[in-house]
Write a structure and sequence with these properties.
single chain, alpha+beta, 215 residues, globular, 50% strand
Length: 215
């Protein structure tokens, strides 16, 4: 079943949820196709500020839920998406008013599974386009603080502290669930080579808010 009215309804509902965290932004969905049991395929999902280029664009999003779990009071869900554009500069402005000093564009894919608001399984892979991008030195110093102590970390810190921002030609971000932890991999290759792996317990995601300066 294809529902234009459903696309408008879901756009409004998702916008209401997103605006609690990022006021002034809206979500629009061009098309919704529904199948039983509780599967929805959303085409051309965009998030951003009205009248501006989208911060995030996904060519399609697949959502499914397990109705048998409703009787137990659980909202068990599965989400998969193809990300065709993530504007780092626009994301920076929307979330931190430009404190990341970020620019560049990411593309990739993701798949998440969870119950309610808790993500139990994650598989996210993003990469930069050919133009590369940039991040503030402060954010990169926070990333490096999670590296093991040693000469390599000391040399990188010294080089990065001398710059206000770091330009990279190649960038990759991966978030993958491994048992009871999330593994975050960051690879930035430009002014210097920065390759960092961060292991975060599922119950300890507060560290990410600290890392991204969102607390």
């Amino acid at each position: 079943m294809e529902s234009p009215a459903g696309a408008r309804f879901i756009s409004r509902w998702v916008t209401e949820q997103v605006q609690r965290q990022v006021p002034g932004t809206v979500v629009t969905i061009d098309q919704v196709r529904l199948r039983w049991p509780l599967t929805a395929r959303l085409r051309l999902v965009r998030w951003g500020k009205p009248g501006q280029a989208p911060i995030l664009r996904m060519d399609w999003v697949a959502l499914s839920a397990d109705p048998s779990q409703w009787l137990k009071g659980n909202w068990v869900w599965d989400e998969e998406a193809e990300i065709s554009r993530l504007d780092l500069a626009a994301l920076d402005q929307a979330l931190t008013k430009g404190t990341w000093k970020a620019n560049g564009y990411l593309v990739g894919r993701n798949r998440f599974k969870g119950t309610g608001s808790f993500i139990e399984q994650a598989d996210l892979h993003l990469r930069t386009l050919t133009s590369g991008g940039a991040l503030s030195s402060e954010i990169l110093q926070q990333l490096l603080s999670f590296m093991p102590q040693g000469d390599a970390r000391g040399k990188l810190l010294g080089a990065i502290q001398a710059k206000s921002s770091f330009h990279f030609d190649v960038g990759r971000v991966e978030v993958v669930t491994e048992g009871s932890i999330y593994r975050f991999n960051f690879l930035l290759d430009g002014d210097h080579l920065l390759d960092v792996t961060i292991l975060v317990p599922k119950e300890g995601l507060g560290i990410l808010n600290q890392l991204l300066n969102l607390q």
